Amino acid sequence: MTDTDFARRSAEINDLLCVLNLLAWDARTQMPPGGSATRGQQSATISALARERVLAPAFEAAAHAALDTPDAPAARQALSAVAALRRVPEALTRELATLKSEAQDAWVTAKAASDFAAFAPALTRMVTLNRELADALGYEDHPYDALLNLYEPGLTLKTLLPLFDRLRAHHVALLSRITAQPAPRTDFLRRSYPAAGQKAYSLSAAQRFGYDLGRGRLDESAHPFEISFTRNDVRITTRVQEHFLSGALFGTLHETGHAMYEQGVDPALTRTVLASDLVGLYAVGGASYGTHESQSRLWENRIGRSRAYWEQHYADLQATFPEQLADVDADTFHRAVNEVRPSLIRVEADELTYDLHIMLRVDLERALIGGELDVRDLPAAWNARVKADLGLDVPDDARGVLQDIHWSSGMFGSFPTYTVGNVMASQFFGAAQAAHPELDSQLERGEYAPLREWLTDNIYRHGRTFTPDELLRRVTGRPLDPQPYLDYLTGKYSDLYALAPQEAHP
Amino acid sequence: MTDTDFARRSAEINDLLCVLNLLAWDARTQMPPGGSATRGQQSATISALARERVLAPAFEAAAHAALDTPDAPAARQALSAVAALRRVPEALTRELATLKSEAQDAWVTAKAASDFAAFAPALTRMVTLNRELADALGYEDHPYDALLNLYEPGLTLKTLLPLFDRLRAHHVALLSRITAQPAPRTDFLRRSYPAAGQKAYSLSAAQRFGYDLGRGRLDESAHPFEISFTRNDVRITTRVQEHFLSGALFGTLHETGHAMYEQGVDPALTRTVLASDLVGLYAVGGASYGTHESQSRLWENRIGRSRAYWEQHYADLQATFPEQLADVDADTFHRAVNEVRPSLIRVEADELTYDLHIMLRVDLERALIGGELDVRDLPAAWNARVKADLGLDVPDDARGVLQDIHWSSGMFGSFPTYTVGNVMASQFFGAAQAAHPELDSQLERGEYAPLREWLTDNIYRHGRTFTPDELLRRVTGRPLDPQPYLDYLTGKYSDLYALAPQEAHP
Hints:
The structure is a homodimer.
Chain A: H1 5-29, H2 36-55, H3 57-65, H4 72-87, H5 90-113, H6 120-137, H7 143-151, H8 157-179, H9 195-209, E1 216-220, E2 226-228, E3 234-238, H10 245-263, E4 276-277, E5 282-283, H11 289-303, H12 307-320, H13 330-336, H14 351-370, H15 378-390, H16 416-435, H17 439-444, H18 449-458, H19 468-476, H20 483-497
Helix pairs in contact in A: 1-2, 1-3, 3-4, 5-6, 6-7, 8-14, 8-20, 9-10, 10-11, 11-16, 12-13, 14-15, 16-20
EC number (chains A, B): 3.4.17.19
GO molecular function (chains A, B): carboxypeptidase activity
Keywords (chains A, B): Carboxypeptidase, Hydrolase, Metal-binding, Metalloprotease, Protease
């Protein structure tokens, strides 16, 4: 970026967003408990300064002046973000921030007591304010589209719902075929695995994929996440549980996918609008939540849970935990970490049922925002849907409607991006295979650099230059298309569970 | 503080300074190496915003309006800081920031090669810019006073030099009496002490003194330090060396003294000017560098190296390191950690020779700033003074004039505060003893809360409400006075080294 007023103002704004990210990372990984109230005030101050700088008339003028320069893509995004932020009344922004903190407290209490009624008033207010936010932002067909657009620019229910209908029909059918088969052995995943070994192995696997520790680090946190302060400092966290090996292992590979996306953004985009979410006030290099999730899923599931991966690297894991894995071979391990089993908790779900968890949340949250579902009827609707899709009875709200933090944080419209990410991952991986016929044999030899470099060239380096739809079409020649993902799942589980061939899948 | 425009603006500025501190803490303890350039830009952005907010006409107007309110002390300090900052041209501030980064790089290289000539050009420029800074800030007698005032408000060479003359004469004489005696046994301090045990013991000692881990944490760093982001989050670091037990142990107690000062500031001062250094652009609750150092020295030396402390707590240390300390009793340990031995390196010096290291630096740096000493003559002047005061030959510049980071960071005028802190520590401790005749017997029982509470009531809670001189006079009834410190040292070492009584000390 040339040294213009637009570049200087963009750099200052990006600095503030990186600082906001650091304040959040520190609060979640390092900060002593006493620091929380004043940390909230510090974040609010930086957030207000960032918002003030984005909305400054001089920034808009500088962006206008940059429309005829090579910085035009950044300038257009800046102007669109300014317009969006300006449509949201400052009072609503403040109300949402205040409610978020109250609603999270109420949710924590309600979840601990498994008492939905204790959360209902805050959630009702949160739905109302998010509906107001949607009205302020504007939409064509459904208020949910305005919220979805905050996480997945350009995506609407009109595109999403038919796609989800296909996925749900496919997944439910495939699930019933799988659950008719014998379950694989998984007992050994719940043996005692000391934390140090889990972390060391996970980190070495992350580095093997190409996560650069010269510009990154791994910490522990209650909920794993990835966060960046420019491409030069991209951190991940994991949650280590002594008796659940898969948690830290695949959690780390998941965050590694996010992290390599951020580390792969073109250095020329550092401190620009194209590494900033100016509406969400968040420093991020990835094009959208869904695009980001496509990379975490790709590295976690497509690579990390593949047969080829475990044929290559199981010996290392066994060397780390020789006693725990003495009676387990690579094939048994690979089958175990790919077990499909309907469960109540989203974050513990397998690759197939995960989408069912997502889709039920999306249907419920869009009904809440659309006014078709009342908060008081939410637990019953939740439980009915879990029974219908997963065949399970929800024993209490803690393991049901209260399990996720998202709604208490005011994040309506973010759930779809998890499944959209799965869909995109298969599209991107297919394009990589088409471009590199030797890709599969490289992966079978444990060579990850060619794949990572292809992803960097085609996706990562562009940062937020393109919308998710533009990026998909550039890289795959197609819009969002579930077929490669359905083919992948069908093929994978037909193999793992020795399913009889079908005439055609739905 | 009441909810006024002055309070709101002060809170925003303090938030920015706390964020600056967090950026610095993270860079020194957590950040991967690749993050350093963009971190520098992030810090520069926040620093510029803080400066802009302090210099905003509206802040000055708000402070003026607060002069007739209970916030008058904060308002007066704000106005004085605004005036000082305004006297410094922005171009000079920028030049100093740029030079600081260059000079530190040059110093690192020069120190590694023990080649003063490689550092001389950057140091020459640093002296020139600091002289310009002194001229901009203004002074009465000597430009050094303007710089000293940045760290120790109100202190001038006129007060400092006679005090240092007394100290130097006393210390040199006492040192020659001590070195005539047999040296204590110290070999065991350099045995192998695993890091985990060192950290665990040091942290438990810090908590025993009263460091609140609910509002703090201990990390490792190359150079130990304490830093705070309001009194609610006060962090310390230590440097653990396997073969040097005293390093982490007393280093942690030292930083604990700093940290308890910050944790003890009145909550009413949180996010106010009285917890902010508006000239240094640094969030800090202590009144000055010297006042702060008085507390680190008091807890490290007066308490942590006392006979009473080791009589109480040596058993715990021995239990942590049973093999390493099997042949060492409490008395032997106490003597070892109080050994006086002239050495080349300031940060490894004992309590007595430490001041000699400081005084030689102060004499040299004030001569540099005053134009009486040329940078090219500095190494010779350094070596001559080490020979005169410590009786040692300096083998190379790395162990001589290049050993400290301060001058490469542009910190001229901060060295005196280490010795000033020692002097104040004895004055404050004497006042505590006078107020609490039972204090010594409490300490002999390992009861630290009464001392900490007295220090909190009389010093910590006031934050930056008083100048160091005002605070000293309020608490001890006297200005800066070296006599209690000289009496303490003479008494302590006469006992430890069985010195013959003197007619009178110099």
